[in-house]
Design goal:
Number of helices: 5
Oligomer: single chain
Number of strands: 2
Shape: flat
Strand content: 5-15%
Helix content: 40-55%
Radius of gyration: 16 Å
Length: 120
């Protein structure tokens, strides 16, 4: 993650009618019915949401290797952590399996879970 790929604060600001930033820095819907509406309205397909969450978590897990890579300078690691580039690390570590299993269940198997960006 870099300054160019980190979610800008303006995106969070624009989504504030739907989401809120909690005291611990996590982002959540303002009310559980918002998530239910998005899923039930077919605006968001649950299986695709789980697929995207799985791929995002796995990408984040791979990105974490920069924290232990001896080729990365200590200063660069410190700056990355301070800028919040690893802020989702704990979530990815704890929840990637749940998203993968939910995707597999809803998709009747894992099949091909490639990123949509892999075709680019």
């Amino acid at each position: 993650m870099t300054d160019n790929t980190k979610l800008p604060d303006t995106v969070l600001y624009l989504c504030k009618p739907l989401i809120q930033v909690l005291g611990d820095g996590n982002v959540a819907f303002v009310h559980f019915t918002m998530q239910e509406y998005l899923i039930s309205s077919l605006f968001v397909k649950q299986v695709e949401a789980e697929r995207t969450a799985t791929l995002s978590c796995m990408s984040y897990l791979g990105f974490a290797f920069r924290l232990v890579d001896p080729a990365v300078q200590d200063e660069e690691r410190t700056i990355g952590v301070a800028k919040g580039f690893h802020s989702l690390q704990t979530y990815a570590n704890e929840h990637w399996r749940e998203h993968l299993l939910a995707y597999a269940t809803q998709n009747n198997g894992i099949g091909s879970i490639e990123s949509p960006m892999s075709d680019c």
